[in-house]
Amino acid sequence: MSGFIDLHSHLLFAVDDGPGDMEISFSLLNSLANLGFSKVVLTPHQATLHYNPSWSDVNNRFNMMLESWEGTTELYLGAENYYDEQFMQRLDQGQVPTLANSRSILLEFNPRFPPASIRELIFNIQINAYVPVIAHVERYPWLDTATMRRLKDSGAYLQVNLTALVDKITSPERISRAHKIIRMGLADILATDTHDTPWIEAASEAISWLESRYTSDEIERLLIKKPAEILSSR
Ligand SMILES: [Fe+2]
């Protein structure tokens, strides 16, 4: 299968814990293309106390990549927003970086410390006219499946890391949570969260894993249709 859309990747070079130079980014993007990805959103971290590149650095590098990229994969810019003080300020100011100029925002949390009320937070994001996409939901032991269901029902999207489906770079606890979330039909999209070569290897194994267990309709929903829906939010 091809035409996959990856809404979560750290392939913008030299801004976070992704590749340090453009050539490595391009090599990883070519590997994703070989796995069937035709659209990739580059989502550098935006986290005050972690990786927090300035938006002008992000834009400059993205433009450099667009000028030099010769592959067929369509590249888009986004961000992985960490839930912190900076995020809340940007939310108030209507300046949260979105996925590929849509109204959708990729949001991650501290795996150990949940927000006071995730449902209230998600509601707050929605009344600010954004569409929340919760990154790698399998990472949060504090997020139970009943709450996931309510968040989905309220219009939020749940992203599971494709790379968390196989035993490569993810802990067994997270793998079993990822499997359960998909089995229960709670996952809206899968994305690679690619940082480096091991993520590509895991993504490749995960696609085979999916193909041996799920119908092509379900794979298409998770890797093409729902990601496209998220990108079309306006
Ligand atoms: Fe990420």
List the helices and strands and how they pair.
Elements lengths: L3 E3 L15 H14 L1 E6 L2 E2 L8 H14 L5 E4 L2 E3 L2 H9 L10 E5 L9 H10 L3 E4 L10 H9 L3 E5 L10 H12 L5 E3 L5 H17 L2 H16 L3
The chain binds fe (ii) ion.
Fe (ii) ion binds next to loops.
In words, what does this structure look like?
The protein contains eight helices and nine strands. With about 230 residues, the protein is an alpha/beta fold. The chain has one domain (about 5-230): Metal-dependent hydrolases (TIM Barrel), CATH 3.20.20. The strands form two sheets. It has a six-stranded parallel beta sheet with strand order 3-5-6-7-8-9. A three-stranded parallel beta sheet has the order 1-2-4. The chain is globular. Bound molecules: fe (ii) ion. Fe (ii) ion binds near residues 8, 10, 80 and 193.
Task: Summarize the model shown.
The protein has eight helices and nine strands. It is an alpha/beta fold.
Helix/strand order, N-terminal first: EHEEHEEHEHEHEHEHH
Radius of gyration: 16 Å
CATH-scheme architecture:
Alpha-Beta Barrel
CATH superfamily: Metal-dependent hydrolases
Low-confidence stretches: none
Keywords for this entry:
234 residues, alpha/beta, TIM Barrel, six-stranded parallel sheet, three-stranded parallel sheet, 9 strands, binds fe (ii) ion
